[in-house]
């Protein structure tokens, strides 16, 4: 199936510059004339970002949670009311097909994901219902806004929203929809899922309450700095959850619970967790901004002419300059001189995940061998 969402009505806001036509954010504003100022607002004050190009769907029915629990990676069978989580859809080999955020409120499970991937995810969910009391449906009448920044509570008070929830918790909004707290791209991040025909009203309400308009450039820069992947941009068709930092339950801000029943792709997740190591890991790169040309998403990362990784999101950050996410081979030391297309690159050492602890399965094997 296909659900085509029109360009956001907020593109008529003063200063709005849409994303490039060939990019995933073409339907919303990339910035409003001051990209670095918008990033500062989102990191230091309060900003609102139009993310209405995300695909929203709902699942109703008494078995919506227990059913989705059996076919996805997160432990959500007993997710409480007004609670949220991140989740993955994997293929049989454990490769990531979809990443999505879900919130359960008053008997309806809300899911939002990347716009171009939403129809395929919905199609998969419908095919997997069988006899379960669960009914997935597209919800094109709803859209996502993100409120970011340490002054978000001040904005919420002025906008009549009230006390903001804790991480992965949600509150219902007075005119329909809901607001949930996310642990990224900053520690003060909130998504509002609101009726699409009320997007302009909510935009005016939030900006009137003190939130500064910010484009997807700001959101992406903060996301990259937080080393949070975006499906289909920072991942490829070989990516497994361990490589992209999605391992962990809800309290660990992950999307893959390691102590739950069988689901598609679980064998790979369990094998890597217990016996092996992921072949690549997600890191942040600092790029040399003096180069005349820029690399593109999907370009190889090389060391001494040898390909050692793949570039994901590339963005200019208001403090760090040009940065990128990349899937790089685990064996590459953090101090290796790299090239990303025409630019010199270096791994941010603080972004390298610590995964040197021995796995329980490997230790058990060694004990059986008397070592």
TrEMBL record:
Pfam family, one: GCV_T
InterPro entries for the chain: GCVT_N, TrmE/GcvT-like, YgfZ/GCV_T_CS, YgfZ/GcvT
Keywords assigned: Transit peptide
GCVT N-terminal domain location: 38-244
Domain of life: Bacteria
Single Gene Ontology BP annotation: iron-sulfur cluster assembly
UniProt key word Transit peptide: yes
Region of interest (Disordered), residue spans: 343-371
NCBIfam families: ygfZ_signature
Protein name: GCVT N-terminal domain-containing protein
Species per Swiss-Prot/TrEMBL record: Nocardia transvalensis
């Amino acid at each position: 199936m296909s659900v085509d969402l029109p360009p956001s009505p907020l593109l008529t806001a003063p200063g709005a510059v849409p994303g490039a036509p060939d990019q995933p954010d073409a339907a919303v504003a990339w910035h409003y004339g001051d990209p670095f100022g918008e990033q500062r607002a989102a990191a230091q004050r309060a900003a609102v970002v139009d993310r209405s190009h995300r695909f929203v769907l709902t699942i109703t029915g008494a078995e919506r949670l227990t059913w989705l629990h059996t076919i996805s990676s997160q432990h959500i069978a007993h997710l409480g009311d007004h609670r949220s989580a991140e989740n993955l859809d994997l293929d049989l080999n454990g490769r990531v097909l979809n990443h999505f955020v879900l919130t359960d409120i008053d008997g309806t499970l809300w899911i939002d994901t990347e716009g171009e991937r939403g129809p395929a995810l919905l199609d998969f969910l419908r095919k997997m219902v069988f006899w379960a009391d669960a009914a997935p449906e597209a919800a094109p009448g709803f859209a996502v806004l993100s409120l970011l920044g340490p002054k978000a509570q001040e904005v919420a008070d002025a906008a009549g929203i009230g006390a903001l929830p804790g991480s992965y918790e949600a509150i219902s909004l007075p005119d329909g929809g809901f607001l949930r707290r996310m642990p990224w791209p900053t520690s003060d991040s909130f998504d509002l899922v609101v009726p699409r025909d009320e997007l302009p009203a909510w935009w005016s309400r939030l900006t009137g309450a003190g939130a500064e308009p910010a484009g997807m450039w700001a959101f992406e820069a903060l996301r990259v700095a937080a080393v949070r992947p975006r499906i289909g941009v920072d991942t490829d068709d070989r990516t497994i959850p361990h490589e992209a930092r999605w391992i962990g339950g809800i309290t660990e801000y992950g999307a893959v619970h390691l102590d739950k029943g069988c689901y598609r792709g679980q064998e790979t997740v369990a094998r890597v967790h217990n016996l092996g190591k992921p072949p690549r890991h997600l890191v942040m790169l600092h790029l040399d901004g003096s180069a005349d040309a820029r690399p593109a998403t999907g370009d190889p990362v090389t060391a001494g002419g040898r390909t050692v990784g793949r570039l994901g999101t590339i963005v200019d950050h208001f403090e760090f300059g040009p940065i990128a996410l990349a899937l790089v081979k685990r064996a590459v030391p953090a101090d290796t001189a790299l090239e990303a297309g025409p630019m010199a690159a270096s791994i941010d050492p603080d972004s390298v995940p610590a995964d040197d602890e021995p796995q329980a399965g490997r230790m058990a094997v060694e004990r059986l061998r008397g070592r």
